[in-house]
Amino acid sequence: MVSVKAEQAQYELLNRYALHQDLPGRIGPPALTEPSQLASDLQTARSLLDHADGSTQRLGGVYAVAAAAVCAAANGTPVAVEELCWSVDLLTEAVLDCPAHLDADVSDTIQPWEGSRQAALALPRSLLPTVALLARGPLGSERVGRIREAVLRCSVHPVHEVRAYAAEGLRPLWSAPCSATVRSCHHAVAWEAVEVGLRLVVKDANSLLASRAESLRPPAAALDQLTGEELSLPVLGTALPAILEAARLQHCRTAQARSVRAPVLDAYARAACVWGDGGYHRHSEEHGAVAEALLRSGAEEPTVMTGFVDTLTVSPAALSHLLHGLKIAATYRPELAKTLGVVWPHIMESVLTRPLPTEQVDRFGHQERLMGELVPNPTPSGADLHVDSTLAKARRTWLTLDPLRDLIDSWTTSAGTERFAIDNLVGFLKAQPIHEQIEPGMRWVRQLCVSSNGAVDSAGFLLAEWLQDLRAEVTASAHPHYRAVVDGLALAQHPGAPALQRLDE
What is the dihedral of CA 156, 158, 159, 165, to 10 degrees? Predict the structure, then answer.
């Protein structure tokens, strides 16, 4: 029987050290705390483990402290060597003792606070040179060998979330300088983890092919032998960000990463097009890790990102979801907004100048949604509990209007009546100075939403409030546009129209 005191201690440790959601779609490491607090909590965790009833008691709090100790050591915080080794060993066992297939008991991996996920994020950091220096020497060849085995196991884990945590866990390794000898360099282990993840992509696709009784195709040996319909976006979506991150930084495995980057991007594009056109797309926020990795790559090599976008132009569904993901990523990472501004004119031009699909091809409204996403408005995550503050912060460093002026002007005459187009335009304008919201903003809004009969076809959710906020700033030259939009809302019987009309009385 688990004592109430032990259960309370577990929850206290979880509350202090549990992994946290780093919006929009990443997982963050345990929060750093004072070394004295961490040392005390490590003693508590070891006591809980010593007295645990393995058949009934969850050990999420214990794993959380162990992960926190490894992450703290990787950041240079003093951690006793004995405690560091204990933490590494506990996390390693959590992975290596886990069943290799989903038909076994994997309850430990299903809970987000349990050992496998904590280990996937923290264990790669134990290979960093800072940890070896902190421990006054290597952790020992046998222990490092088990760490390597556990890191590789996480990269092919049967539970998707563990693989995603593993890819995030590898991130700090790419930017760390190489170790003194290439043979023992942490980049070698990190790249080996990426390679086994890529092999899982092909293995997963072959399993799908083998399950189809009508399929006569032989097993594929490489990604370029797959059309996309056999590929799993969730599996590819954990491998691709790690490859993009490895390829953009200089280290002993950069050449290998760059050699596979293009084939993996092509495979992801093929899969995204097939999934999107069939209506089996992932939610836009699930592209968050890929979108962020693309923007980071685009900061140094814009053609990597623009080339990938061009590949997706054949599929309005796939491209619209990627654009939404890119905007979300830049909203939460101000440093990425600059890259978004560099590539967005190319994106808009690529879409606006290509032939429009026939009605049959766009029977699901994918083209209409793509046109609505073409305006780069700050876009919060659906999981954000503080949307207003997030938007206010994003607007301070958002894309400027001038590089997009002609493109948006053209877009307002061809975007159609997609229901979120006006909200996206207003959202973009609210990130601009007041005088630009007035002109050309008012004219663009009129061009976009006021139909030939004078009524507003689609008012969205933001238009009426935006008009009310700007009424006192409207210039004489912009007033006809403002008046036409207000009258259009009245013709459409919008509930906010009477209040707007009274402002002019």
Answer: -10
Distance CA 417, CA 451 (A): 9
Q: Distance (Å, rounded) from C-alpha 270 to C-alpha 323?
A: 16
Task: Give the 3-state secondary structure of residue 321.
Answer: helix
Asked if 85 contacts 75 with a C-beta cutoff of 8 angstroms, the reply is no
156 φ/ψ sector (left φ>0, alpha ψ -120 to 50, else beta)? alpha
Distance, CA of 402 to CA of 398 (rounded, Å): 12
Give the tokens for residue 205.
Answer: 């696709």
Q: Do 285 and 331 contact (CB within 8 A), yes or no?
A: no
Other beta carbons within 10 angstroms of residue 416's beta carbon come to 14
Backbone angles phi, psi at 477, to 5 degrees: -70, -30
| Polymer length in residues for the chain | 505
Residue with tokens 């132009």: 313
Q: Model pTM? A: 0.90
8 A C-beta contact, residue 274 and residue 229: yes
Handedness of CA 225, 228, 232, 234 (dihedral sign): positive
Residue 216 burial class via C-beta count within 10 angstroms: exposed 0-12, middle 13-18, buried 19 and up:
exposed
The amino acid occupying position 217 is: R
- 296-341 residue pLDDT tens: 999 999 999 999 999 999 899 899 999 999 999 999 999 999 999 9
Whether the predicted pLDDT of 429 surpasses 50 = yes
- Alpha-carbon distance of 414 to 410, in angstroms, equals 7
State residue 358's pLDDT score.
54
What is the token pair recorded at 409?
């002007």
**pLDDT value for 289:** 84
For residue 462, what is the DSSP state?
Answer: T
In whole angstroms, what is the distance from residue 157 CA to residue 147 CA? 15
In sequence order, what are the residues at sequence separation of 6 or more whose Cβ sits closer than 8 angstroms to the Cβ of residue 78? Answer: 35, 134
pLDDT for the residue numbered 230: 83
Q: 209 burial class (0-12, 13-18, 19+ CB within 10 angstroms)?
A: middle
- Residue 132's contacts (CB-CB under 8 Å, 6 or more residues apart) are 138, 139
Q: What pLDDT sits at residue 106?
A: 53
Around Cβ 13, how many Cβ atoms within 10 Å?
25
Angle in degrees, CA 336, 341, 346, rounded to 5: 125
Structure tokens at 364: 């699901």
Distance (Å) of CA 21 to CA 33, 112, 164, 348:
18, 11, 13, 31
- The DSSP annotation for 366-417 comes to HHHHHHHHTS------TT-S-HHHHHHHHHTTPPPSGGGHHHHHHHTTTSTT
